[in-house]
């Protein structure tokens, strides 16, 4: 189970990683069912980044893989990607920037970021997950 303390630690570590990059971001932690556990928006992060971070985290948690994997999978199928987004009421966000959170091979949820490039968002999330003692793979 991903606790509130775990989610808070992930957001704090992600904020530290984004600060080191000099890029204000928002970060969202979802549990494996796609429920929001924690959300932070750094000073100066775009207002929309909070919603985008949640979508990326939801997508990563739903599939137990980085959201970049869904981006790659959906690129040749834009109509299907749009249909999935509509079916999930906008939650499915197949863009780079979120990674799953695993402990002892068990999917606990995902951490998503937004505010930088997709690669910057994913790097901050990966740094946070590993720095907080979790892994991004089963």
UniProtKB/TrEMBL annotation:
Domain of life: Bacteria
SUPFAM superfamilies recorded: GlcG-like
Gene3D superfamilies linked to this entry: Haem-degrading domain
Signal sequence interval, chain numbering: none
UniProt name for this protein: Heme-binding protein
Classification of source organism: Bacteria, Bacillati, Actinomycetota, Actinomycetes, Propionibacteriales
């Amino acid at each position: 189970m991903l606790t509130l303390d775990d989610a808070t630690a992930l957001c704090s570590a992600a904020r530290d990683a984004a600060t080191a990059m000099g890029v204000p971001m928002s970060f969202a932690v979802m549990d494996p069912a796609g429920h929001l556990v924690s959300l932070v928006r750094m000073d100066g992060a775009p207002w929309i980044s909070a919603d985008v971070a949640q979508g990326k985290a939801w997508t990563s948690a739903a599939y137990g893989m980085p959201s970049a994997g869904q981006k790659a999978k959906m690129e040749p199928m834009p109509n299907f990607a749009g249909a999935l987004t509509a079916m999930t009421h906008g939650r499915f966000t197949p863009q780079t920037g979120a990674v799953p959170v695993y402990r002892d091979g068990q999917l606990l949820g995902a951490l998503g970021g937004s505010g930088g490039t997709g690669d910057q968002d994913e790097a901050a999330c990966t740094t946070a997950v590993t720095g907080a003692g979790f892994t991004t793979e089963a």
